[in-house]
Write a structure and sequence with these properties.
By secondary structure, this protein is mainly α. The chain has 2 domains: 96 residues, no CATH class; 82 residues, no CATH class. It is 57% helix and 0% strand. It contains 11 helices and no strands. The longest helix has 20 residues. It is globular, with a radius of gyration of 19 Å. The model has no long low-confidence stretch (mean pLDDT 87).
Length: 189
């Protein structure tokens, strides 16, 4: 992935810092985040390179990175940072910004994320089969892992019906409503 400093946007750096609550300028490129990342082998650009691109205001370079979508959110990068930067929070912030700007570079991950959140929104908790059915419909991969379902059902690793709905399902629905209202306000501003 290449970039040009001509396309630098210092305002982007400020936006990410504000949304993540992190001091991006304090990263001095030690590489501890990248060295400890368990998903780094799958990244197109490493975490420290994302941080550097962010410092330089390289919005397209950062938001189009496939690495954002392969991040496990394990926080190893944050724990290893000598400057106490919550790098995992920055990666999460960047994923949200990429979604907002329609720059999702690994659509299958985003489709799975949306499918998972849909089941949580309406059932108050995760429902594995429901998540997979929604993912298969959204992605068009209608036979994804279907061969694994009979074994998982026999071993009682999956339930055909959703687990008992928790008593706080309405509270969970209100969280989603507040989030969606906030998103609506952002779009209209």
């Amino acid at each position: 992935m290449s970039f040009s400093l001509d396309k630098s946007d210092p305002n982007f750096t400020k936006q990410v810092a504000a949304r993540s609550g992190q001091n991006i300028a304090s990263c001095y490129q030690c590489g501890n985040c990248a060295a400890g990342c368990p998903a780094g082998f799958a990244y197109d650009i490493q975490v420290n390179q994302i941080m550097r691109g962010l410092q330089l205001g390289l919005k397209d370079y950062v938001l189009q990175a496939r690495s954002l979508w392969f991040c496990l959110s394990c926080s190893t990068c944050s724990l290893r940072c000598p400057n106490n930067i919550d790098v995992a929070q920055i990666m999460e912030t960047l994923r949200h910004m990429a979604r907002d700007e329609h720059k999702v570079s690994v659509s299958a991950v985003d489709k799975f994320f949306k499918s998972f959140l849909t089941t949580v929104r309406f059932l108050g908790r995760s429902y594995e089969i429901g998540t997979m059915v929604l993912f298969m419909l959204r992605s068009g991969h209608l036979t994804t892992d279907v061969d694994l379902a009979p074994q998982a059902l026999l071993k009682q690793k999956l339930s055909i019906l959703p687990h008992k709905t928790p008593p706080n399902v309405k509270a969970t629905a209100r969280i989603f409503e507040r989030f969606l209202k906030g998103k609506h306000k952002q779009v209209n501003n």
